[in-house]
Amino acid sequence: MAFYNENHIAHFDGEKQKIQQLYEDLLLSYGSLALSNKFARELVTQGFLRRVSVLRRCVDNVFRIIPPDYVGLPSKDELRDCEINLHAFYLSVFGCFENLALVWVHERSIRRKNGNPLAPMQIGFGEKYAEVRASLSPDFLQYLTSKTMTEWFAYLENYRHALAHRIPLYIPPDAIPPEKVERWNELERASGEAVRRLDLDEHDRLQSEQKTLGFFHPSIRHSYEEKSSGILFHPQLLIDFKTVEEFANRMLKEFKQPLP
């Protein structure tokens, strides 16, 4: 039996089908964006649009490797292949916003109050990037600082920074219902004892029984020590792609605003 119900699966499929069109629209709109700064143009075509293409492909791959209607427990190779695509996805999502911030700064010649160029660590859309935020329109700044976007950026930074610097994103191979935890622990102890006795046949039998106790929970997390909450990755990928698309389209309006 699949983890999601039929309504969820149908909804995910419908939303996934929209991604190709959203990607093509971004490709056309940003590919035709008139920019005067040479480096900004390169950041759009070779940076942002490449990353969006990676996002689209990662969504396709994850939904193909472990689709929402998956029944049973994925193999180790399926889990690792899915994790590889999730790693690329999260780094690319974060990179999309880094690219757009750099495009904005170079195209609009945003500088420090003393007239010097911004240092790389001063460029971004977060709360600490005061010079960049001060250059944005009131409407865009209101959107950027909304509760929804603030919480979403906090989630993105949590997962991206864990992936890049601490514990990589991980898909648990199975989940154990509370009423079966005691039996799972018994089998775990017994299989360890079987290894110490070099009884590999008994170890394999016990491991096979363990697998019958669990079910697949299609979620990702990073550090257990940090008590990171699990996130269902199928809907989250769709939400994240659409968030990048929405943000990028709002940025297009910013680029079309007249210079102060």
Keywords, separated by commas or semicolons:
260 residues; 9 helices; elongated
Reading side by side through the largest sheet, how are the strands ordered? 1-2
Overall spatial form: elongated
User: Uncertain segments of ≥5 residues (pLDDT<50)?
Assistant: none
Proportion of helical residues: 55-70%
- Topology order in helix (H) and strand (E) letters: HHHHHHHHEEH
Structural class: mainly alpha
Largest sheet, in brief, is: 2 strands, antiparallel
**DSSP helix count?**
9
Gap between N and C termini: 59 Å
Mean pLDDT: 90
- The number of E-state strands comes to 2
- Give me the Rg, rounded: 23 Å
Strand content: under 5%
Whole-number tally of structural domains:
1
Describe this structure in words.
With 260 residues, the chain is mainly alpha-helical. The chain has one domain. The protein is built from 9 helices and 2 strands, in the order ααααααααββα. The protein has helices at residues 6-31, 38-65, 76-108, 130-134, 138-144, 147-165, 181-196, 200-213, 233-255; strands at residues 219-220, 231-232. A two-stranded antiparallel sheet has the order 1-2. Helix 1 (6-31) packs antiparallel against helix 2 and helix 3 packs across helix 6 (147-165). 21% of the residues are buried. The model has no long low-confidence stretch (mean pLDDT 90).
